[in-house]
Amino acid sequence: MSIFTLKQSRPAPKTQTGVLGWTTKHLFSSKTNAVLSLFALYFLYLILPPLLDWMIFGADFSAKTNAECTREAACWSYIGEKMNLFMYGMYPTEEYWRPNLLLTITLSFAFMVRLLKHQPYKNKAILTLFIIYPVIAFFLLYGNDFLGIKIVETNQWGGLMLTIVVASVGIVASFPIGVFLALGRQSRMKTIQFLSIAYIELIRGIPLITILFMVSVMLPLFFTEGINFDKLLRALIGITLFQTAYIAEVIRGGLQAVPKEQYEAADAIGLSFTQKMVFIILPQALKISIPNIVGSFIALFKDTTLVLIIGIFDMLAIAELATNDTDWLGRKTEGIVFVSIVIWMLLYLMSRYSKALERRFNTQH
After folding, report:
1. Residues 271-298: pLDDT tens digits?
2. Any idea what the Cα angle at residue 341 is, between residues 340 and 347, rounded to 5°?
3. Which of 296, 307, 190 is nearest to 253 (CA)?
4. Rounded to whole angstroms, how far apart are CA atoms 318 and 336?
5. Which of 1, 74, 79, 204 could, after both became Cys, cross-link 59 (CB 3.0–4.6 A)?
6. C-beta of residue 151 within 8 angstroms of C-beta of residue 230
7. Average pLDDT over residues 176-199
8. Is pTM beyond 0.70 here?
9. What dihedral do alpha carbons 67, 69, 74, 75 form, nearest 10°?
10. CB of 63 closer than 8 Å to CB of 77
11. CA angle 330-332-338, nearest 5°?
């Protein structure tokens, strides 16, 4: 017979579980945290009630005209009235089906790739999509006379559609170039290393607004007279050139974080430089760099608002343009708030996807 008697476990104290436990642990765990928490709660008390009253409780959602809206609160009827302008810019109304179809195709592709369980098949599917998707997007948005799709010039593009196009092209185009520049900066070939370093340091030392001015004004001078170089294409080139330098530095940081033993092990088993980088080094470097890569893409998404300076109307520029309607004067604040909420939601989704990638490729136990 055992001399020890097992006692029934007791529940954790209520002060350590539930809402009270979470509050004690995260907000009032020390005197400093308690003071900061009380200050934050007081600040929220000051700003939340009037903000919620302006945005929701006192807001007008059903007014037909600006005169029917109250001046003391938001008039979201204005957003409903200008929704197509915020989404598509000056894109022809009868052609809205094209960006809508592209969005449907995008979501369908993403859903199909997610359904694939085998990683080799998933990688091949993603690579195929990267090749054919830009072609589909171009013909749908721009059009093609041969296919019977009406051509819509890029000066009619705008709103959220244009913001996503500029950010997506910048992200997709800058990433592979940035990888090559990062590898070039660490190359043992002095010419390639010098050119990579010179490009990265030069571009990182120039503001994006300056690059946009340069590609908008100077780039057409390099072409013969009569060649019309599309304004949107100039902006995409400038943004890609700018973002490439930052992605290269992010990737270089990941390459330097890979232990030296990994390089030596790859050399020891006889792998070529390409095999070593593709199969051993780059996968580890990219995994390490995921937070910084996504951070750079988020910064790029926000920087797309600078295209306004060369006459391209992204979503934020449309918010400014919409206030010129004499029927809805004085509703600029609603437009800016709406654009901020939409962009925040998109960037938050990017951030959450980054977290999901980190968990998926996490090999630390």
Report:
1. 888 888 888 899 899 989 988 999 999 9
2. 85
3. 296
4. 10
5. 74
6. no
7. 91
8. yes
9. -80
10. yes
11. 140
CA 120 to chain centre: 26
Report whether 144 contacts 151 (CB < 8 A): yes
Side-chain half-sphere CA neighbours of 109 within 13 A: 19
CA separation for the pair 136, 144 (Å, rounded): 11
pLDDT in tens, 104-157: 988 888 788 777 776 677 777 777 777 888 889 999 999 988 888 999 999 899
Q: Evaluate the CA torsion angle 306, 295, 175, 137 in order and state its sign.
A: negative
CA distance 281 to 186: 13
pLDDT at residue 14 greater than cutoff 70: no
Residue owning tokens 């000056």? 90
Residue by residue, DSSP assigns 80-144 as HHTHHHHHHTT--GGGTHHHHHHHHHHHHHHHHHHH--SHHHHHHHHHHHHHHHHHHHHHHHT-B
Instruction: Domains for the chain: give ranges and CATH numbers.
Output: 91-152 (no CATH), 156-311+343-360 (1.10.3720.10)
